[in-house]
């Protein structure tokens, strides 16, 4: 993968973990909303919410990574991304900063296993390495193994 | 300007082609009656005129050749044979194709020589001498006078026409515009008089309406087309003034007695030709064309308003309970007023989206005729209630299912002539297509007097196809057995015919109709016929919904599927064959906890009673146990989107007064969900949540029909 210096990334928090999402993937970031459950087989699909008059599905990134569900807090955010014609919200524990990476490596070198598909690459910052999320795979990829 | 003209031409051509089709049908049915011939002749002639004005030579030529054939029929030199009618239909179809080509490309590339030859050879055998006079006319530029030698030779009638021309309100230099119209008319005909006189118009300058009395051999439609070539002309009302003496001076001073612009002079004693022409622009002064997208946008905005209005009402209610201030009374009054205005607005916008179902129904006479001819059957289609209005999206969506039902009726329903005679029925079969309003719904029925459907055959066929066991089929009532035809993969046709196709059958029809929040029901008597009844909502965008709560979640049920709401003591819930039931007015009613299907914990009820909302789909009833009734209100139906995808038992979502989302339950889907669970012989336990996780699992026939 090429060096992604021009691209900006938003750092999202998930418990103690940090991941990066490309700003170009993100439509907007909103506070936690009231979510209406929808009967569905995907455990990470939390339900739907009202985004300015449109019905928007919301998924939990924690669930996607097989993490325990957390209570919504003041810092909890929904990152709204585009999926085809519609918007989908991704719940994260928090959004901290915008950054650039000096270097990006393919994720397969470092992350393996089922969760590997959720990463588009690994970005390097002064503080260390951060996984860059592959949004499309997170939305539609196959089920991850339980990892508790 | 050109495109505007083109648009008008295309709209008119569509109208005329539809008329032409009906005329040809009439010609076939009633033979060469004067009336039928006149009507079809007129239509072909108008089409010829307008396509000539627009410079669509091929179209004009075909219409012209058609006219020649008709002319010979009129003179009784040609008999109306099925072969002849088929050629006329073929020509009509070609004209339709040309029209779509113009729509797409703006010009015509399709060759029309073969068709023209066919028509010519029809007309041949005798003297179509006039054909060469304009059959090979040079490509006319749009400005050229629409030459009509054929028509004038056939009926050398000189008409006096009074043209009342109103200029568009935003038109500038009105006097000059009027002069342009005057000159256009003068180029093509004799202008006998102008009211007010031209001099006065030029002096006054601000005239926006003028009446021209002309003498011409053109048809009124052609005169109108000429006038309408000027885009600044807002309205044209023509009136035949044939009774007028030839030497008429200035337009008679009885202008006040003449119809106002835009008012259809329907009661004036005109020859039919004149009336027909005026009708092709009904109320042109009072209607405007609006892009459908704008209407859709308007409807969306109204939808937002409805939601906001609910929210305002809710917020003002909360304020009132909290603070007792006088100012809040004002707020409440305003809220009430807004509510009233919005509901009126909503109704008006809804009405603007309504179209008469004729749009759709007019396609069927021809279809039935063609199919019947292919199958060698004799069938009459009776159409009732074509003026019934429906939301345009519903009309668009219901087309395919209706085509299917009518094809079925022609193909499988109506027997062959011999069978019918043997059964003591009239040789001619009848299909009755009707539409009518019923409260907030439209009822469409397709009824035939054919052979009907035998429950026995359905059972046998379903068992043979492995859709259910022989025992299950035996245990089924006749009525339920008939319903099996809505099962996917079921097709009653003994032999797969070209007409009805294979595989896709009534299940697709039902899926289509349920997608529109509609219902379909079938009623059949072997030997006597079949009747299919479709019930559709007037509109899909905004419906009345009953808000209910299951545990902590709010759901909306369309009021159209709520039959009644009852309160029942918990101890009266019984179990029959493992199924919970209650007794309502001596009727045993199956009940269900949707909680189990939606994986919601059942709530322990504090009270002794439970609320049961009885929902109905066709003749089926099911009681839903709900934890709370919230009330009923207008709900705006919104799609859930493709990411979530199809949720069994849910048709969409809506936004409530507090801004949160509630799912809209769909009664037919809920029933399927519940009966699928029963078919899997699954007891109603909260832990197992049947069907909710199964896509077509278990092979139970009812659950499969969810997968459309």
Describe the structure.
- The complex is a heterodimer of chains A (148) and B (708).
- Helices cover 7% and strands 46% of the residues of chain A.
- Chain A is built from two helices and eleven strands.
- Chain A has helices spanning 61-64, 135-140; strands spanning 9-14, 17-22, 26-31, 45-51, 54-60, 77-83, 86-92, 94-99, 103-105, 119-125, 128-133.
- In chain A, a hairpin with a 2-residue loop joins strand 10 (119-125) and strand 11 (128-133).
- The termini of chain A are far apart.
- Chain B is of the alpha+beta class and 708 residues long.
- In chain B, the strands form five sheets. In chain B, strands 14-18-19-17-16-15 form a six-stranded mixed sheet, with helices on one face. Chain B has a five-stranded mixed sheet with strand order 6-8-9-11-10.
- In chain B, helix 1 packs antiparallel against helix 2, helix 2 packs parallel to helix 10 and helix 4 (82-105) packs antiparallel against helix 5 (113-123).
- The two termini of chain B are 46 Å apart.
- The A-B interface holds A 34, 36-41, 45, 47-50, 53-57, 83-86, 88, 139 and B 304, 307, 553-554, 597-600, 638-644, 647-650, 653, 655, 659-663, 692-693.
Distance between the termini of chain A: 31 Å
Low-confidence stretches of chain A: 144-148
Helix/strand-derived category of chain A reads mainly beta
Tell me the radius of gyration of chain A: 15 Å
Percent of sequence in beta strands of chain B: 15-25%
Q: What is the mean predicted local confidence, pLDDT of chain B?
A: 76
- This entry's quaternary arrangement is heterodimer
């Amino acid at each position: 993968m090429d060096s992604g210096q021009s691209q900006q990334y938003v750092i999202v928090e998930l418990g103690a973990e940090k991941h990066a999402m490309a700003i170009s993937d993100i439509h907007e970031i909103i506070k936690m909303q009231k979510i209406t459950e929808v009967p569905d087989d995907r455990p990470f699909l939390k339900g739907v919410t009202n985004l300015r008059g449109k019905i928007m599905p919301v998924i939990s990134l924690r669930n996607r990574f097989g993490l325990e569900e957390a209570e919504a807090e003041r810092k909890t955010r929904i990152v709204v991304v585009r999926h085809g014609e519609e918007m989908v919200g991704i719940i994260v524990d928090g959004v901290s900063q915008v950054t650039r990476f000096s270097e990006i490596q393919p994720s397969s070198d470092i992350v393996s296993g089922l969760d590997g598909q959720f990463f588009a690459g690994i970005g390097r910052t002064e503080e260390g390495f951060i996984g860059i999320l592959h949004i499309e795979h997170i939305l539609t990829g196959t089920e991850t193994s339980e990892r508790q | 300007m050109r495109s505007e003209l083109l648009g008008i031409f295309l709209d008119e051509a569509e109208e005329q082609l539809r008329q032409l089709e009906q005329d040809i049908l009439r010609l076939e049915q009633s033979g060469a009656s004067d009336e039928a011939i006149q009507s079809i002749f007129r239509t072909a002639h108008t089409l010829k005129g307008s396509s000539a004005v627009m410079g669509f030579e091929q179209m004009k030529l075909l219409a012209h050749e058609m006219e020649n054939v008709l002319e010979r029929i009129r003179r009784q030199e040609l008999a109306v044979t099925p072969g002849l009618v088929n050629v006329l239909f073929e020509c009509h179809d070609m004209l339709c194709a040309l029209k779509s080509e113009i729509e797409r490309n703006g010009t015509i590339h399709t060759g029309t020589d073969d068709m023209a030859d066919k028509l010519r050879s029809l007309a041949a055998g005798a003297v179509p001498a006039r054909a060469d006079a304009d059959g090979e006319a040079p490509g006319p530029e749009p400005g050229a006078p629409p030459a009509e030698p054929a028509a004038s030779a056939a009926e050398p009638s000189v008409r006096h026409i009074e043209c009342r021309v109103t200029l568009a309100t935003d038109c500038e230099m009105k006097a000059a515009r009027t002069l342009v119209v005057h000159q256009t008319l003068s180029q093509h005909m004799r202008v006998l008089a102008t009211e007010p006189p031209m001099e006065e118009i030029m002096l006054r300058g601000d005239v926006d309406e003028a009446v021209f009395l002309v003498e011409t051999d053109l048809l009124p439609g052609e005169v109108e087309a000429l006038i309408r070539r000027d885009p600044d002309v807002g309205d044209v009302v023509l009136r035949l003034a044939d009774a007028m003496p030839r030497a008429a001076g200035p337009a008679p001073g009885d202008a006040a007695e003449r119809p106002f612009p835009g008012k259809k002079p329907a009661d004036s004693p005109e020859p039919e030709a004149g009336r027909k022409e005026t009708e092709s622009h009904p109320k042109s002064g009072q209607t405007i064309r609006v892009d459908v997208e704008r209407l859709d946008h308007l409807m969306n905005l109204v939808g937002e308003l409805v939601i906001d209005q609910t929210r305002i009402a809710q917020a003002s209610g909360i304020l009132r309970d909290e603070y007792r201030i006088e100012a809040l009374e004002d707020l409440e009054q305003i809220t009430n007023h807004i509510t009233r205005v919005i509901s009126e607005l909503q109704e008006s916008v809804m009405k603007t989206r309504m179209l008469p179902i004729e749009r759709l129904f007019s396609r069927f006479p021809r279809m039935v005729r063609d199919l019947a001819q292919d199958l060698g059957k004799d069938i009459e289609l009776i159409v009732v209630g074509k003026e019934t209005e429906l939301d345009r999206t519903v009309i668009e969506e219901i087309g395919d299912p209706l085509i299917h039902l009518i094809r079925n009726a022609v193909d499988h329903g109506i027997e062959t002539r011999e069978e019918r005679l043997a059964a003591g029925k009239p040789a001619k079969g009848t299909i009755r297509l009707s539409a009518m309003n019923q409260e907030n719904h439209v009822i469409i029925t397709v009824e035939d007097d054919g052979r009907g459907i035998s429950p026995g055959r359905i059972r046998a066929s379903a068992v043979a196809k492995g859709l259910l066991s022989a025992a299950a089929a035996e245990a089924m009532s006749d009525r339920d057995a008939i319903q099996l035809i809505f099962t996917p993969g079921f097709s009653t046709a003994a032999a797969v015919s070209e007409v009805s196709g294979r595989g896709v059958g009534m299940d697709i029809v039902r899926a289509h109709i349920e997608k529109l929040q509609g219902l379909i029901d079938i009623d059949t008597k072997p030997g006597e016929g079949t009747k299919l009844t479709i019930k559709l909502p007037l509109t899909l965008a905004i419906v009345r919904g009953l808000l209910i709560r299951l545990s902590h979640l709010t759901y909306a049920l369309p009021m159209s599927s709520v039959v009644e709401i009852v309160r029942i003591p918990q101890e009266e819930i019984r179990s029959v064959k493992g199924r919970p039931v209650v007794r309502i007015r001596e009727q045993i009613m199956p009940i269900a906890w949707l909680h189990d299907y939606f994986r919601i914990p059942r709530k322990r009820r504090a009270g002794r009673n439970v609320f049961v909302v009885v929902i109905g789909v066709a003749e089926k009833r099911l009681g839903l146990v709900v934890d709370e009734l919230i009330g009923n209100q207008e709900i705006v139906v919104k799609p859930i989107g493709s990411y979530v995808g199809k949720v069994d038992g849910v048709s969409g979502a809506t936004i409530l007064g507090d801004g949160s989302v509630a799912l809209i339950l769909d009664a037919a889907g809920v029933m399927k969900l519940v009966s699928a669970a029963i078919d899997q012989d699954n007891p109603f336990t909260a832990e197992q949540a049947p069907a909710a996780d199964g896509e077509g699992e278990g092979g139970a026939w009812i659950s499969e029909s969810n997968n459309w």
